[in-house]
Amino acid sequence: MTDSSTPHPAPSGSPADRSWWGWGTLDKALSDAECTALGQLVPGAADTPLPVPDVSALTLPKVRVEPPAALAPVMSSAPRDRASHTYGKAYRDVVRALRGDFAAAPDQVARPRTEQQVTEVLDWAAEAGVAVVPYGAGSSVVGGVEYRGREHRGVVSLDLSALDRVLEIDRVSRAARVQAGALGPGLEAQLRPHGLTLRHFPQSFEFSTLGGWLATRAGGHYATLYTHIDDLVESMRVVTPVGVNESMRLPGSGAGPSPDRLFLGSEGTLGVITEAWMRLQERPRHKASATVLFDDVHTAMGAVRAIAQSGLHPANCRLLDSGEAGLAGVARGGESVLVLGVESAHFPVDGRLSELLTLARDHGGAPAPVESGGADSAADTWRSAFLSMPYLRDALTRMSVVSETFETACTWDRASELYEAVRGRLAEVVKDVTGASGTVNCRFTHIYPDGPAPYFTVIAPGRRGSEVAMWDEIKSAAMDVLHDHRATVTHHHAVGRDHRPGYDRQRPEPFALALRAAKRALDPAGILNPGVLVDPAAAI
Amino acid sequence: MTDSSTPHPAPSGSPADRSWWGWGTLDKALSDAECTALGQLVPGAADTPLPVPDVSALTLPKVRVEPPAALAPVMSSAPRDRASHTYGKAYRDVVRALRGDFAAAPDQVARPRTEQQVTEVLDWAAEAGVAVVPYGAGSSVVGGVEYRGREHRGVVSLDLSALDRVLEIDRVSRAARVQAGALGPGLEAQLRPHGLTLRHFPQSFEFSTLGGWLATRAGGHYATLYTHIDDLVESMRVVTPVGVNESMRLPGSGAGPSPDRLFLGSEGTLGVITEAWMRLQERPRHKASATVLFDDVHTAMGAVRAIAQSGLHPANCRLLDSGEAGLAGVARGGESVLVLGVESAHFPVDGRLSELLTLARDHGGAPAPVESGGADSAADTWRSAFLSMPYLRDALTRMSVVSETFETACTWDRASELYEAVRGRLAEVVKDVTGASGTVNCRFTHIYPDGPAPYFTVIAPGRRGSEVAMWDEIKSAAMDVLHDHRATVTHHHAVGRDHRPGYDRQRPEPFALALRAAKRALDPAGILNPGVLVDPAAAI
To answer: Which residues contact A436 (CB under 8 A, 6 or more apart)?
Structure first.
């Protein structure tokens, strides 16, 4: 019943096109002139863009470890490889890359072509006292792929991107066995001929991998029901230093604590995810979407809550506050905008959309008039802006504008208060830190019956040379507000190294003991992504 | 926004009414005459029922440990308490209770009235080398509450039933903080005045607790979407020997591996769940149901699969094979029967039911004609039979009929084959073991897009005195078939002690190492439910 015939080839794409300092591909980065023009929209921004350094002229630390002969063919210490694997894609990462600060560069970048080579890298590293940082496509915005310790003889970035194939498709159960290094587009391209889709679209979709999604408990852009990748997992294969952990393919089980749930969110600290059986869906054939305007964001939150609790499960239910809506160009009159979408592979969805609009109207919303571009042109406008945002962020970064996001989740009883508290406190801090008022906008990226996942964007002019310190101060204040309001340190950006202080406050202490014990059992030499989730000292 | 005003009183119900040897309450147990009549339906059954022993005349092992003075008021070594806490409610438990075999009786039964007393029991037990077996309402059918070791100085059954209150209700987020000892009916009775429901209805609903559901990853009888209790948890409080583990109330989080998911399914081995914030729903106002007949069970499975993959999420989607349907009295002509139900608190559901029936018809089903009792009378007939089944099982047990169930889950690609393999192999084994043909029936209790959860019932005449050995032989053969077909050892009955061999084969070895390490970290003295999930020797 399983179709293991030749899978479609993954789309090729030369890594040489990929930006080594910022988001995505080099051809989509904004030009100097575009950066300058964009900077003029932010009062107080620099006049000229930070230059992009010449990658061949970078100063990198001396390489401390060489690979064993057997692994030499899949390891590289070329400057471009080391530089591009030093950081993720956080604001602070891009700033430091532009400044040519590569003190944290790994000694080697390993690109195994087989799972056996993954095992060999771990065996060698454990023996040699070398840290291993698992790396999908490097889209971490929380310092998840940046080694910051001193305890190891060297550091290897373990890049899984060569393991990018759909190995097997079970059409009957609608599932596929996929290698962890598959990027979003390559994965979908391999599923499309079978009429199937994973339907997991994080904003990083083009430049993040299945393994990264699993290791960080990523959230896709579908707003309800199947949001976190966790629920799409049927089974996983994880190479740990003490052996391969492969769970059974099961639609459900009650046999002890879920093995997969220990590795989901483990961020490369317990093992290296090499493949997973993922639950798929048929590609939707029926779609409908609409936007609803609200004069007041708190009224809008009430409507969103009613929808989240209605059991109607819209595919899209994204609330943009007035600032965010203005920036995305979907509302100019100071309204908050709710973008609604419904999809089905099986049945027309117009009735469902009507039910959603009824709920929204009953809760104070005004469905937007249909524009000439069609009923969903506001949704399209927003989606297109959404995908280009990281490139704009990089351009603003070059203009020394502090431009970054953070996200959280809380229960509905605290949502309005949290929204006001974050915006209020950040307005103060941004003013203190930057001297300008800046903007702090919010959207709800995901909603649940018991609460929303608010996502905040901060834009303010920075002082050239102090951008990282300025953002760190703003972010630190934001984390305090989240903690005070019992909101999570992260809904889908993971913990990495940047969220460790907040994570340590959020995580119950007995669970921390259990996690450290599990880490010691699976990674006795303490080589796996040291400093993430667990202190290196506690892990060995 | 939180309503912490006086919660409704839990319904009282004297523990004296509860059966100490079998299911539920004594008044609902079948009389001797009813047992005899029922036995006549099973060719080869005994002529007279096994007598129910006099609880005051039972032979119990000597009490080895006495409680410290501070805990004496909440501990009991009364024979009825010890006897009623010796076993769960598996077939083999009921047989042994009827035979007066209480060699495994706990020394003490503790009924803490506060969480602090739970902590005190654990502290004392760790100090005294006494095993603690957490006990909700004792509905385990897998030996989950029966101590079988020899390593401890004594055994305490830790009965949580006095901690049975809804402590707080958050109407806005639709969640409630509930003590772990709440039984199903008491929990729902406290939620009903608020128009809310947990909507989790395992077959054991009347005589199982929230804490038991969480510790065993219970499945409710809603067939799709929210089946396992896991997904209804917002946060948990767990008393471990090294401290209280309290997770944050969050609708979603991506901060490391989920702390709750380590304790969900931990079956009392890592800590004692004392309370949880649970996600609630509004009580449904719109309901519709129907039944569909199929000439062939495999055709029916195809229809069920189409429904599971349609995104329509019926509340009920229960497939009874012809034997099961005949026994439940919902089809007499050898058909397989699909019971469909749809519910909503918000919108009429007739359209949804039509869509489901269209799918079923397109896949070879014949919607049953509406009976005079109303459209859902077959569903009602079935549901009523469902709730009385454990009492019937006890009656058959008294007639020395081997009458037991086991359940599993597998992906759709293996479902038909598994069904035939289990029925084929069990027909042989039942014949070998009992000399009679017996019956092996199946229903699908839960369905997922990637597979069903089949539930098998075995009924065959046993030899008086050999019932347990006979069932163990049948069950062992069943476990082998499940393993060979890569089906889980349990979808919702938990592992306990009876499923350990199957669990050890199913569980990946690195995860076993991690779990043992977590156990050692949280329960360093190895007192919590020894022998479940982890070997006592490995745990200390």
So the answer is: A43, A44, A430, A460, A461
